[in-house]
Design goal:
6-stranded mixed beta sheet; alpha/beta; 584 residues; 28 helices; Rossmann fold
Length: 584
């Protein structure tokens, strides 16, 4: 071995390799710093890495031949050493290929096929981030709500920053529990950085560890540990948000804290975080979410964010059949207004008010509320989606589609955004794009009923009855689907099917009749135009419906030119020209 080492030193192979690697490492660090400082395009670092990796191989070859003069014949061991070093160079090149944002791991497809099906090659802005769910290190699985809730609060704080793309909670939390490659996260969510972290809670003490990682290079840009008391949690969240903004060089009014600095009883905050997790999950858990928020404000009546979240949850109850629409509307309005009386910067309360005004067809009031919401949280995907739905309901399809596209950039793994965008595209008669969006929604959530309902209608209208049957079964169950699709396909059966639709005690048909717009659409599709118009006139008399944008569904196309339909539109105040947005 001594002789071998002397021969390699004589050729200066090892010296060259070590010197090159040291210089390459220093150069990459300098280039990484420059790239972050001047927002260089992402491809610059990948090209630099490839050149440096290739240069390593060239340097070894040059070192070999440079040291050959005066050296004895090459031995097999020396050839083995050279092959090993060249393999290192090849590994560096392979690493470069792994950095390519177009590469994905097969594990990702297995974990969630919707990730791969919906991912699109789009330019990734340098000022963009996904906040991945912080890991719960408390040793108690029941504490997950706490780490998830703190993650969401940090995400909501960052969404207030102008000119920063913040991936929505729905999409970011898709990676929860997965040992995800940051390159994959960056590709799927279209972000240049991710914020990862962990939370360890013990009694009234909490330790939060966070790190900011570049999704292009995998390099850590910043990390920090915070040991605090629970009553100081908002200050920590604000510190984290400000540090991220500073690292990404996002300009904002730094005199205004991103997280409201006030003392909140830790018990109230704990109930609030429990409620946030249930609110995000939607479904039957919304009732428990309202109860948790109620507990929070009972402990701390001045907790504005809890009042705003309670308004949001209450407003959602009718959409899941969990409360009467008029009762929930009144309660949600009261909660939202109280939240704003406590803190006029409660963005979620403005969003809820916008939704409530929309349901009442109070178009101007809804527009003002949504503008306030977007001004406070310009990168909040849910706020943008709500505003897009408002524009859709107004009949401003082109503007609505542009807002849905923006929401989808922030929340690419949201089935509801894809489905609502599909509805707008159908209204614009861009049917192929609309069908693609429905396919995207069902790739994300194969059981999403709204997407199946829209697909049932559009497939039946296009004469694709076998496909309509598949979607109808997912929406209404096999028996109702069989009857509805057969009725739409066979004019001779329509009279019997309409009678069944109007009188059957089947749960599927009872549920369908409870949705006035859906009921009217299927009556129209079954040829019962007068009955469909009767249903719409009854609906217009109520002056409160959960989803007024359904008035523009293609299922109502057959009666759209009827004077009675136009009278319904007039009573609803549609189409309405919403003022141009001012949120930037």
């Amino acid at each position: 071995m001594t002789d071998l080492w002397q021969r390699l030193k004589q050729r200066k192979l090892v010296q060259w390799a070590l010197a090159y690697l040291a210089a390459a490492w220093a150069l990459l660090q300098a280039l990484g710093l420059a790239a972050d400082s001047y927002d260089w395009p992402h491809g610059v670092m990948r090209v630099a890495f490839a050149i440096i990796a290739l240069g390593f191989v060239v340097a070894l070859v040059l070192a070999w031949y440079h040291g050959e003069r005066g050296v004895q014949r090459v031995t097999g061991t020396e050839l083995l050493i050279l092959a090993l070093l060249l393999a290192i160079g090849g590994a560096l090149l392979w690493r470069y290929e792994r950095l390519s944002p177009s590469t994905s791991s097969p594990d990702a497809a297995q974990r969630n096929p919707g990730l791969i099906a919906t991912a699109q090659a789009v330019p990734i802005p340098a000022k963009s981030i996904a906040v991945l769910p912080f890991a719960n290190l408390s040793g108690d699985p029941q504490q997950v709500y706490f780490s998830d809730g703190v993650t969401e609060e940090v995400l909501n704080a960052l969404a207030q920053l102008p000119n920063l793309k913040v991936a929505a909670r729905t999409s970011a939390f898709t990676f929860k529990g997965n040992a995800s490659d940051v390159h994959e996260v960056g590709r799927v969510l279209g972000v240049a950085t991710v914020l990862e972290g962990s939370i360890q809670k013990s009694g009234d003490e909490v330790r939060i560890t966070v790190q900011l990682v570049d999704t292009r290079s995998g390099y850590q840009l910043w990390s920090e540990n915070y040991d605090r008391k629970l009553n100081n949690i908002f200050a920590v969240e604000d510190e984290i948000s400000n540090a991220v903004a500073d690292k990404l060089r996002v300009q904002w009014n730094s005199a205004q804290p991103l997280v409201v600095q006030k003392t909140v009883d830790p018990r109230a905050h704990d109930f609030y975080l429990r409620g946030l997790t249930l609110l995000a999950a939607r479904g039957p858990g919304l009732r428990n979410a309202v109860a948790d928020f109620q507990q929070a404000v009972s402990i701390d009546p001045d907790f504005a964010q809890a009042w705003g979240a309670m308004a949001d949850a209450e407003a959602l109850l009718p959409s899941y059949g969990l409360a009467d629409l008029s009762t929930a509307q009144v309660r949600a309005m009261s909660f939202a207004q109280h939240a704003l009386a406590l803190d006029e910067r409660t963005a979620s309360a403005y969003g809820t008010l916008g939704v409530l005004y929309l349901r009442r067809w109070q178009w101007e009031q809804a527009n003002v509320a949504f503008q306030h919401s977007l001004a406070l949280a310009p990168s909040d995907a849910e706020a943008i989606d709500q505003y897009a739905q408002y524009l859709f309901a107004c009949g401003q399809f082109t503007r609505a589609e542009a807002e849905f596209e923006r929401a989808q950039e922030l929340d690419p793994l949201s089935a509801i955004v894809a489905t609502m965008r599909a509805g707008t595209l159908f209204a614009l008669r861009r049917n192929q794009e609309a069908s693609s969006q429905l396919g995207r929604a069902l790739a994300i959530d194969p059981n999403f009923r709204l997407a199946h309902t829209i697909a049932t209608i559009t497939d039946a209208q296009a004469g694709r009855f076998s496909q309509a049957m598949v979607h109808a079964q997912s929406s209404f169950g096999p028996d109702a689907a069989e009857l509805l699709v057969r009725g739409m396909a066979d004019p001779g059966l329509r009279g019997r099917v309409v009678q069944e639709l109007e009188t059957s005690s089947s749960p599927s048909f009872v549920a369908l009749r409870s949705n006035s717009f859906a009921f009217a659409q299927f009556l129209a599709l079954l040829g019962a135009r007068d009955r469909a118009l009767d249903a719409l006139e009854d609906l217009a008399a109520d002056h409160a419906v959960p989803e007024p944008m359904q008035i523009w569904s293609t299922g109502l196309d057959s009666i759209r030119n009827d004077p009675r339909f136009k009278a319904v539109l007039k009573k609803m105040g549609l189409p309405y020209k919403a003022a141009e947005n001012t949120h930037g």
